[in-house]
Amino acid sequence: MKHKEFIRIVPESEKAILFIHGIAGTPNHFDEFIGLVPKDVSVYNMLLDGHGKKTRDFSASSMRKWKEQVCNTVDELLKEHKKIYIAAHSMGTLFAIGEAIEKAGIEKLFLLAVPIKLFVRPAALFSAFKIYLGKVSENDLKTQAMKNCCGIELSKNPFEYLGWIPRFLELFDEIGKTKKVLQKLKTNCRIYQSKNDELVSLKSVSLLRNKTKASVKVLEKSGHYYYDKDDFDFLLNEFREFVL
What we know:
By secondary structure, the chain is α/β, with parallel strands linked by helices.
């Protein structure tokens, strides 16, 4: 599966939508959302550094590089557009929140699975192990969804994953930093958490509702990567309203 940026800059467009995927994720996560963006609106579906490549490339990247990349992309988009909307998943939502707090040109946020409080369920570990072994059943929809959302060419050498540890420790640190500034988020914001998320605790919902003025909704039958059909239809309808 190819993991590439999709960039469509519309000359003289006042508005651009930036998509930011999660850690070890892929721009492909937003394929069906991009199709709903009006043709007169610019689109930048970014690929974070070290993603779309091999295990060692991911290890060689860093949170600092990802944050700088997002910051620079937002700054470039603001040079040509008056309004920036951001749609993001998981770790990408942390970057979106940080940018929205710092920059007035960001008008709306559409955030999926904000990882303010983590809770790793055994199902997530089992799915990851099955993906590593290359034994994913077509009927295992949740594991298939996780596999499709992985933007890294996985290695069979388990020792190569030791380099991932610093990247996830950086993620935990970034979550802590975001918690401390949540109350500063004043941007128009829609948040969608999944009731059956294998990685993000449902306690994040109350925290987000207490710390922000965002609209926070719960997808009853979905997980971190997998979306139930009804939930996904609901999400797409919400996004149609968001992009107007």
